[in-house]
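User: Good morning. I'm curious how fe (ii) ion would be positioned relative to this chain. Could you predict the structure with it bound?
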Amino acid sequence: MDYTPLRISTVKPLKSLTFDLYIFFKEQYLCYVKSGDQLTEEKYTKLKVQKVAKFFITESDEINYQNFLDRLLSETLSSSQVTTEEKVQMVEGAATSAVERMQNNPGSESAYRMTETAAKSLRQVIKSNPEALKKIFGKKVEKNEELIKHSLNVCALSVKLAEILKCTEQELDDLGTAALIHDIAIPQMNKNDLPLFNKPRKLLTNDDKRVYYLHTKDAITMLQDKPYVNKAILDLVANHEEVLSGSGPNKKKKLSKLEEILSMVNNYDKRTITNKTTPMQTLKDMMIDEMGNYNLDLLNEFKKVLHSEGLLD
Ligand SMILES: [Fe+2]
Ligand SMILES: [Fe+2]
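Assistant: Good morning! Here's the predicted structure, ligand included:
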């Protein structure tokens, strides 16, 4: 049987489950809560105490889980009783699970649908909770979670910027989904090439660049024949490393507004990982290094957003 891994933060105790919930314990999958039963407070706490971050469902329960999660997300996000922290945690859990599923199984429509929902939910949390973006960026993650965290960061920040720049709902949805999946091909890279993700862009040799940038093409190979992935999203993913000077892998010199936003925010967040610079320093570096790669107006608008969201302190 195939099991799909999900984050514990996407279930809540005292809710009747519509799917069998498994945990992986002592090298095997155990049914922890059966469909129709509730995850008791006690069982939930036990998982947390034992630092179990993941649970599993079977493939046949994917639809049931998705419906459960959609309901739980809309209930949680619209509730005034739930703290921003809890909302952020749940949305992060959904987005993390979705990106991980897309990395492992890029051809799964169910994983893609989950990604769309997660991107929408992330946008909703940020829009209606002023502290949310800061909470998301304040979290430190383990090294092996860096890539997923990067995807969430880029999603959250690019959508925030695009909203201020008055993009349409459809554009925001496309941008959010594309941001979550833009780097899904990176884990598939040759093991010896993986450290390129953590190498500062300035230090990449031409050979490094040729190898590293293949992840944009590989992602398209994974997604292009899927009828549920629209053209706008494919273009965004394909062009997320492009810059106006034409030095990106596709040598594009003209970018749509959304493409430029995604590329710039990706560049920014990637720098904070590879260069380990503070947000303020990263921004200063970009203002110098990326002149000609992004419109100055856009860089300035980005700076304003980082400032007003309290991300530069
Ligand atoms: Fe990338
Ligand atoms: Fe990226």
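The radius of gyration is 20 Å. Residues 182-183, 215, 240-241 surround fe (ii) ion (ligand 1) (CB under 6 Å).
Let me know if you'd like a different ligand tried.
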